[in-house]
Design brief:
The chain is an alpha/beta fold and 213 residues long. The chain is 44% helix and 13% strand. β4 and β5 form a beta hairpin. Bound molecules: zinc ion (ZN).
């Protein structure tokens, strides 16, 4: 069964996690892209919207072993919420009728690492190589990457630092889920009516495994 043919959010989540099991087991489905292209040319009806990082190690459709027409994929560095990512998710649930929203963070996230390093250094994120919009990504981590949450970071070993960054990335996923709900009237309403689900998850770049948070 194609993901796009299932709309129940619990069933969709189960299908996505089963797809991730196939991905990590090295047994993905055979994807007939030509068939999918032909069947979706006239219109789309995806069953999930996934907000994830731009990281090249987190290719969303492959991670969940889904195909053309199955998911709306919103990608922004650090999988943080902003006006345009939130608008994209609102379109998915409020216009297209998607019932499953997933915020997918990942381990070893460069955006989370940069945010942690900036906070520990006590600096505002600086403009590097004329990347004048990049600090807005780092700023997105401010609610979770605080001097208090990172008090033990500077004196930690490298492995422990990586674990702290992964924990910040996980907290960012939870914060982003809450932000989607608090900032969007349509997401908030559909969630309270039991129509949609908003789920946080983390992707492990070392194993390929997705774990719900
Ligand atoms: Zn990332």
């Amino acid at each position: 069964m194609k993901l796009q043919d299932e709309k129940n959010p619990e069933a969709c989540l189960k299908m996505l996690l089963e797809g991730n099991e196939r991905y990590t087991a090295g047994t993905p489905q055979a994807h007939d892209f030509q068939e999918r292209i032909a069947n979706t040319a006239g219109g789309q009806s995806p069953s999930a919207v996934i907000l994830s990082c731009i990281d090249s190690r987190v290719p969303v459709e492959q991670v969940f072993d889904v195909s053309v027409g199955d998911v709306f994929s919103v990608r922004v560095a650090g999988n943080i919420s902003g006006t345009k990512s939130l608008g994209s998710i609102e379109y998915a649930v409020g216009v297209s009728g998607v019932q499953l929203v997933i915020v997918l963070g990942h381990t070893r996230c460069g955006a989370a690492t940069a945010a942690v390093e900036a906070v520990v250094a006590g600096e505002n994120p600086s403009v590097v190589n004329e990347c004048v919009h990049l600090p807005s990504i780092i700023d997105g981590f401010k609610p979770v990457a605080t001097p208090e949450s990172l008090s033990g970071y500077a004196g930690s070993e490298a492995g422990d630092k990586a674990a702290i960054v992964d924990e910040i990335a996980k907290q960012n996923v939870i914060h982003t889920c809450n932000t989607l709900i608090s900032k969007s009237p349509v997401i908030s309403r559909l969630l309270s009516e039991g129509t949609i689900q908003v789920i946080g998850a983390m992707y492990d770049v070392a194993s390929g495994k997705v774990t719900l948070v």
